[in-house]
Amino acid sequence: MKINTKINSKNLSVGFIGAGNMGLPMIKNLIKAGFNVKVFDWNIKVTKKLDKEKIIAVNNLRAIAKSDFIISMLPNTTDVESVFNNETGINQFLSPGTIIIDMSTISSTSSIQIGKILQKKQIEFLDAPVSGGVKGATNGTLSIMVGGKKEIYKKSLDILNSMGKNIIYAGKSGMGQIFKMCNQIMVGSHIQAMCEAFALCKSKGGNLALLRETLIGGSANSWMLENLGNAVIDKNEKAGFRIDLQLKDLKLASDAAFEGGVPLPGLSLVLALYLETRAHNEGKNGNQSLFKAYDRMTNQN
Length: 301
Known about the structure:
Blueprint: E1 13-17, H1 23-32, E2 36-40, H2 44-52, E3 57-58, E4 69-72, H3 77-83, E5 99-102, H4 108-119, E6 124-127, E7 130-131, H5 133-139, E8 142-147, H6 150-155, H7 157-161, E9 164-171, H8 175-203, H9 208-216, H10 223-233, H11 243-260, H12 265-279, H13 291-298
Parallel strand pairs: 1-2, 1-4, 2-3, 4-5, 5-6, 8-9
Antiparallel strand pairs: 7-8
């Protein structure tokens, strides 16, 4: 459920770092909501695309450092660490009171550490990873899981509401990342279960489209079945969310489980199956392409 707050978005400036497949539609929704947005991305091709769409792009981090809010949407932990770095990153240019919202999916341990580094400079930090893919980013319906100080979360609601529909305060710093890891464990497991069920049905000569329709109508239904089931049936490998990114997220969950001494055998299985697909150079395919691992294991093409 959206939480409604009332502030004048035209008075707030937002610096956005990372205008990739997820970042760009999020940026557009911020602009649509009336925020003054400046964007930085390392990729010159992305910057040219921003120029064509008349989105204000800058060529260095310092140019966005004086924004009221700074949002980062980056591929991995090392990218975020390099941005929020006292020596070579944006930290040296930030003013006390700035609110940082990292919406990347990264290590919870690293996220907590970044927050501590920023807090020493009186800069606030929220970890706020998202779920919902490019479709959710485009439609402004992302689920956003937020960790950090509750009062800073409340101050950021207008920003978050412009990009998402289901805004959850998960708790202390790093907890947004933990919630996202839990989400990704279930995403991977749901895709794996769908591919497994389809493989059995196909081996017996069953109608996969009819099976999908049947499962959607019962207790086995899931978001994955509704949104990616037809892609599996049609052997559509197009990426909404790539296997490489799915693997990155599952490894983050696996690392967190190992740190805490928590055995998660289901996660280990799904991680191994996705590694099998990457071993076949399928990392750029959509995460529904786990079906290819089942095609190989069952000798069904």
